[in-house]
Model the fold of this input.
Amino acid sequence: MHTLKPIFLLSLLCTSIASHCHAARGYPELQLGLGNIARYGQARFANVLYTAGEWVTNASGGWTWQNVQAPQLDADGNPRYVLPNTPLVALPLFDATDIEHTNMCKGRLSLTWEGAADIRLPNATLVSGTYSGVVLNGRRDYLSSDGGGNRMMIHIYAINTNDPPRSIRLWLPHPADPMNRSLAPPAGMPGPLFHPTYLDLVRPFRLFRFMDWLETNNNQTEDWSDRRPPAHCFMHGSHHIDKAIAGEVAYELCIALCNTAGADMWLCVPHLATDEYVTNLARLVLYGSDGTNAYTARMANPVYPPLGTNLRVFVEFSNEVWNPGFNQGNWAYNQSVALGLAWGQFAGRKASRVWRIFDGVWGAANTQRIVRVGAGRSGDARYCRDFINEAIANGVKPHFLSVAPYFGNDIEDWIYAKGAAFFTVRSSANINRAHDELQRRLLSGVAGSSVMNDDTGGGIDQAIRDVCVEYDLPLVNYEGGPSIYTSDIDTPSNQPTGSWLTSFMVEFNRDPRMVETYNINMNLCKMRGLTTHAIFTDVGVWGKYGQWGHKEFTAQSTNYYSRDCAVKYKYMIDWMAEQASIRHIDEPLGAVPAFDNDPALPPVEIGRPYKLDLTTSGGNGARTAKLIGAYLAGGITVTSVPGAPDRLRIAGMTTSTVAGGQCAVFARVLDADGDPAWRRFVLKIAGGNGTIIESDFTGGPPSMNRPWTNLYCRAPGFSSAGWDRGAGVFCDAVNDAFTFSLDMPPTESAATLALAIADREYLTFSVAPPAGVTMDLRNAEVLFTVGRIDYYAPHRYAVFTSIGGFTGGAQVYQSPRFSSTLPETFVFTLPDTAAYQHLTGPVEFRIYAFAGQYSSHRTSLSAFKLTARNVTFNQRPIAIDDTAAATAQQTLGIDVLANDSDWDGNALAVQSVGAPVYGSAVIVSNAVRYTAPSLASVTDSFTYVMNDGHGETDSATVAVILVPEPAAALACAACTLAGRAARARESRAR
Done:
């Protein structure tokens, strides 16, 4: 069992400065991805009709709705006529959540239109206007008692075909007085486009990405005439009379949001868009439009204004054209193959063409406001280089590289594997365990490594950082945040288990510990040079397809870090404020601070005290070290050091290991002018009662330095021959694991264990007890970790011993088949037979690999531990530091052995005592008599050595606080209580 202390309590900085925070090279600290518009979505617009998406009828009765298209509608989606006894119906926010309805739709609704028609809300209560009948330029006000979607169902019963309705609007309640007032403007005045509550949500941010608003994925738009006009009834759903075109928001409304909020605009240009389309789009953003055509020059009073002259446009070619999960990805791949280009090269060529068109339209006077988005692929440096090189060859180098460092690390699969009992109740204890595991995965190692590090890690791949450095490009995320979805498990055939898991993941995202987890990943990204993080998305419903929204509903509170508030959104706001005082790693103001310790710290031995300070140096002025995240065994803590803000202390004692056998500490240091440095430290948890041998595979490469003899632990007097290979094993030069490959048949079924035995495809290791000591391996525990690196690497592993022999059927353990390329740890016990008792000579272990295919597909051994259940050998005792208090010249006895222990239960004795710094100390009656000097207000110290009577020793330090009267009594009492607590902990641990 392990515990992970909550270590992230972000300082509540003044968030009023958040909107002014900017990261390196003039890019904002955060980019906001806007979620899609839909009738199941959120109230982003003052006119909720935009969300309906279509007019429908139910002429057949019941709920068999039929979509209405041409010829009954005009180009703006306005109805031309109504069929007899078949009213037209729109369903704005019909399928939104109850909480969205309650917060945004409950109260006064105003239905307005131009033209002559009979339009009503038959399920709401009329409070103003005629109940029915055709009205010219009408307005009817209603009261929605509960905000339900059925209250907002718009019915058109009759139309004067000589003056059909247009500018149909359903205005939501005004948040300042929802029961008595709507957002409808006075007659003859323009109304607001956006809901005030939604504007409050987006205003802290200075860059909006419109990928979802523009329905970029799978978009089939080609011609400029295909785009949605800004006067259209709806802002999603199919809008073209003759074509099945994606239902994007009109560009004019996107521009209006940027102008209203003062944010830059990030466009995703459809992948099939013609040059004419791109040209008109560039004109529209620069000059505005009349609602049909983009202007070609600046206008004094444009009908739809252009992007503000103080704002920039970020231009991206489509979205994820490397992703075969989208139409644009398959299209781009097929095009690249047809042209004989690399995938990334083709994407760079298409992006270059779009950028050149924008540059040509905007001209030299305005091109400084165009930002070219180098749309890369996380974890694929080659794709990124191909894209950048092609763009450079075309004379339009991107301004930055953009990737999407999501995190989630398959945590939902880990939770699902725990079984339904783990996630059915959604207990806080299990949610904490899940966050512990996700944080372990984020901190466990370098992304993509399956050698020493047992999971995918977090942050940004070093290879992507290398690309940015090579081409001198900032790193700007296009998307990011938690990526957790259960749609492959929450299926109709897997109920109710699937829905239970989804509910658990929703609570997991709501939990305030998500802030800790998010903060770890953000700092991992910053460590690798991130300039701008991307929030995907602003607000959205959570479910099995993900919990992407940083708010679950538009009006969700951000007052606290509590499960009923938007903890992810609040964290982003606070992150901006914190980053205002932290410089980017590529723009240091002067000397840069650093941590002094190596990333691999000395191991923690189970049952033995541990204390180590993480120290820093360099930089300008005073330094401050801060713990970002940690995954620790129970009993180990990381704390600030009193009086030394530039260091952190790892200390404590653990009685158990952790998953993966490795702890992690992630810390940051800042100097006085805001220059940062980060480092991730790892601590192996090793040893413990009965440990005979535990191998250390770090460094190396182990397989090229045979026999590999490095060890974390070895029982006193025992010897080992180190790790070596059989004749059929081919070694690979990889650090941190004994890495090897085999020459296997082309079919996995032929790569049998018998063949592996015959071909001598094994790793070997032996251990022997000291002379005169017998070794009892009955029921001894064996732990080993293997990691498949390549696709056809062996899927199974078998362990043999020299006691049972190395022939088929003699294996003491055989692993199940597994396909993961992440390391897998296996634990088993040796046979409880007499053959494993009273051993006096060396015992050889062999690990055979089999059930793979082909040659040169690498696998690795990264851990091996042998622990006796029947201990027949002597083990080192454990000495623990002590604290005492004394007044000047006082003599006191200190029972230094009171909190010491011995695995074997041997009687302990004080063997020697070192000289104190100030006073004196001698051994008296198996304790220490200490005499204080004539000093006060200092701390004296000395060391002592104890033994177990069987040749093994350990040492510890005693700190004596020298205090004046009457403080001595209080100090003594405190030391006594601390000593009792320590002894109680030791007693429970034993």
Notes: The first helix runs from residue 98 to 104.
